[in-house]
Amino acid sequence: MEEKKTPAWGNPESAPPQQEPTAPADSTYTQWYEVKSGDTLWKIAKEAYGDGSLYPEIFKANQDILSDPDKIKVGQKLRIP
Fold it and tell me: Contact 72/78 with Cβ under 8 angstroms?
């Protein structure tokens, strides 16, 4: 009886090692924004990208300091990817 061989592309043992995702802070394109009184992530995204609905991108890039996109504080320095 002939043994079936799994092709290398289907064998998890032969898969290349996964690379860790690069943190947003490591990007050369990251800008920083200091939160001012009256700011919201929507307002910041509108200013940075021209589209306030992209605020989740800013939230994702700052999850190390933000737990809720509606709770930003004056003086916080946010990454703008």
Answer: yes
Beta bridge partners of 77: 34
List CB contacts of 72: < 8 A, sequence separation 6 or more: 35, 39, 40, 41, 66, 78
Q: What is the pLDDT of residues 7-38, one digit of tens each?
A: 555 555 555 555 444 444 455 668 999 999 99
What is the DSSP annotation of 9-64? GG-GGGSPPPPPPPPGGG-TT-EEEE--TT--HHHHHHHHHS-GGGHHHHHHHTTT
Quote the pLDDT of residue 6: 52
Q: Domain residue spans in the chain?
A: 38-81
pLDDT at site 65: 96
